[in-house]
């Protein structure tokens, strides 16, 4: 039976007005056990916020890690996305990609930091995503290095466009990146086509290494599904906040 201390979570729903996206975007904000507005907290920002909370069980994992494993208390900000426009916002060639990146860095982060005791140093922010969510997370860090230098990518959709963006950087010694990909992700069917995520992630890993990024790269048995990523999240969270 799941310990009730883990499932008793404080999650606040906020609406962030965005001039960049010409709409209001829903975000969920997890407050850790013992939350105190007089303290300050590091922040985990996630793409696909609904999925991270519902399928990734990120809040439940955080409660357990904070209460029983000694992880530092952390705020978690999950940014919702309209799945019908996900490719437009998360894919580098998407029609709303640039606007979404500006929203994230210039509107979302200031909104959170104006209302919650979030630490404002880039080393205290981690930006995370799965598949294309990992892609946009990396691009945001590359485009806004003063705001983000720590990225968590679960089976990132790191294709040629992303590698071109990485290649444009002279060096990436400032970037800290965790990459995970499942060994069964060699023929993943997506709305954009069928891809070999293992090969694409290996190519991207090699390029990042050549640029001097601080990289942790792992391949494990797993498919391109939340059942795989959910089980890996606790260990990854401890890497960043343990």
Automatic annotation (TrEMBL):
List, alphabetically, the InterPro entries matched.
AB_hydrolase_fold (IPR029058), Esterase-like (IPR000801), Mycobacterial_A85_antigen (IPR050583)
Name listed for the protein in its UniProt record: Enterochelin esterase
Q: What is the source species? A: Paenibacillus flagellatus
């Amino acid at each position: 039976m799941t310990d009730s201390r883990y499932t008793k979570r404080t999650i606040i729903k906020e609406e962030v007005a965005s001039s960049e996206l010409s709409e209001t975007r829903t975000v969920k904000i997890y407050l850790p056990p013992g939350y105190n507005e007089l303290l300050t907290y590091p922040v985990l920002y996630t793409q696909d916020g609904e999925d991270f909370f519902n399928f990734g069980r990120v809040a439940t994992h955080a409660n357990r890690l904070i209460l029983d494993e000694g992880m530092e208390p952390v705020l978690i900000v999950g940014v919702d996305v309209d799945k019908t426009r996900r490719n437009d916002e998360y894919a580098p060639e998407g029609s709303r990609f640039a606007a979404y990146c500006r929203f994230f860095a210039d509107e979302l982060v200031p909104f959170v930091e104006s209302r919650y005791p979030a630490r404002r140093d880039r080393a205290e922010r981690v930006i995370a995503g799965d598949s294309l969510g990992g892609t946009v997370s990396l691009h945001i860090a590359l485009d806004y290095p003063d705001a983000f230098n720590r990225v968590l990518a679960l089976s990132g959709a790191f294709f040629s466009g992303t590698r071109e963006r990485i290649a444009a950087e002279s060096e990436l010694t400032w970037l800290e990146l965790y990459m995970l990909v499942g060994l069964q992700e060699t023929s993943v069917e997506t709305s954009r086509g069928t891809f070999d995520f293992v090969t694409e992630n290996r190519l991207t890993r090699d390029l990042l290494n050549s640029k001097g990024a601080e990289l942790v790269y792992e391949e494990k048995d797993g498919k391109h599904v939340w059942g795989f990523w959910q089980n890996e999240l606790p260990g990854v969270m401890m890497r960043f906040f343990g």
